[in-house]
Amino acid sequence: MWGKRVAVVLGVLILGAGAASAQNFGAPVDRYLRLEWEVEQAKKGPRITGYVYNDRGLWALNVQLLVEAQDAAGRTVSQTQGYVNWNVPPMGRASFEVAVPPGSAYRVRIESFDWLKGGPSS
């Protein structure tokens, strides 16, 4: 079943037909940010939807994602950049949605972001 939710530290690999396993996807960008996502089949094709969770007492701004579509052999066949819809509040979450080309599996990671400096939690 597509769409099985998987909580991860910064990357997971979802294999077709619902089997899921965690996999490191590059070095963690930050220990305070984590992803939860799923693949959905929309009318216009597959999309990745989910949340970025912020476990730090600062706002995370300008969060950019990288999604890789893979073939059945695990080779990356395309990359898509996406953005979190909102700034991620301290100790909170923000949603995202990224349209992706068809693939047998997907990997998602946080590519870049900024911490809001100067607040009372700095």
Note the gap between the termini. 43 Å
CATH topology: Immunoglobulin-like
Overall number of strands:
9
Number of separate structural domains? 1
Helix content: under 10%
Going by CATH, the architecture would be Sandwich
For the largest beta-sheet, the strand count, sense and barrel status come to: 5 strands, antiparallel
Strand content: over 45%
Please, how many helices? 0
Shape: elongated
Across the major sheet, the strand order is 3-2-9-6-7
Oligomer designation:
single chain
Radius of gyration: 14 Å
Structural summary, described in words:
The protein contains no helices and nine strands. The chain has 122 residues and is mostly beta strands. It has one domain (6-115): Sandwich (Immunoglobulin-like), CATH 2.60.40. The model is unreliable at 1-25 (pLDDT under 50). It has a five-stranded antiparallel β-sheet, with no helix packed on it. The protein has a four-stranded antiparallel β-sheet with strand order 1-4-5-8, with no helix packed on it. It is elongated, with a radius of gyration of 14 Å. It starts with 5 loop residues before the first strand and ends in a 7-residue tail after the last strand.
